[in-house]
Amino acid sequence: MVVSYPRPDSADLLFHALADPTRRDIVATVLRGGSSVSALGRRYPMSLTAVQKHVAVLERAGLVRKHRRGREQVVTAEVEALRDAARVLDRLESIWRDRLERFADVLAEPAGGPTP
Amino acid sequence: MTIASVNRDLESLTLTLVAEYDAAPERVWELWADPRKLERWWGPPVYPATVVAHDLTPDGTVSYYMTGPEGDRHWGWWRIVSVEPPSTLVFEDGFGDETGAPDPSLPATLARVSIEAREDGGTRMVLVSTFPSRESMDQVLAMGAEEGMRLALGQTDAILAAAEW
Questions:
Q1: Domains of chain A: total
Q2: Whether the complex's predicted ipTM surpasses the cut of 0.90
Q3: Is A97 an 8 Å CB contact of chain B?
Q4: What region, left, alpha or beta, does residue A28 occupy, with left being phi > 0 and alpha being psi -120 to 50 degrees?
């Protein structure tokens, strides 16, 4: 589930990161307001167990959260987590991009290199 | 164009960068294996790195500090997980306290470097950086404010300033 992109756009990035169409749809659905697990189960042509597994994957990634409301399990989106994860990877990417460019500069020097 | 591609996976908190270099794998490896070469590219120009220990063997440690414009020192360390010259290096990449000792309250990432020869004599280097757990990312986030993020992830201001050159 790795997504290539030329320029990350924060909103797009979040969705693109979820390459599985069902999980992407679950996040989109619960972003519009919490949804019960059973309602999500009715939404997709698959078993409730399969939907629960998708929710569990999203939950493990911290992208959604499950709450109990009465007898129902309600799934809500962790909007901040989605933003935070994107932001942390942004920072990490900028650090490594710069390092790998400097790496090229050092490599391009004649053997022995200049005195610093 | 040094960086051929950047992939990110938000779900597993993994960043993958592919870089292409016009040099043989052995020369690319040297930039990791020779501490004097490593310190020329690891830190940004205004936060140059000084490597004080460099043991690229399994369970070995690399210890370094980066010196800021005010003479401030920021320590970091690697713990080598596996090493196979000149093609593979896997290490934990973490931050240190003022004495240089690993600081468990700061998050570590896992870095995996793969170096392979291209048919034209050049080299492809793949760098995969992963937050090993949701917790380690949460540690970064718990540091909260920009200041914490800057400290944790390596002097972003300095890097941005350097990027403008």
A1: 1
A2: no
A3: yes
A4: alpha
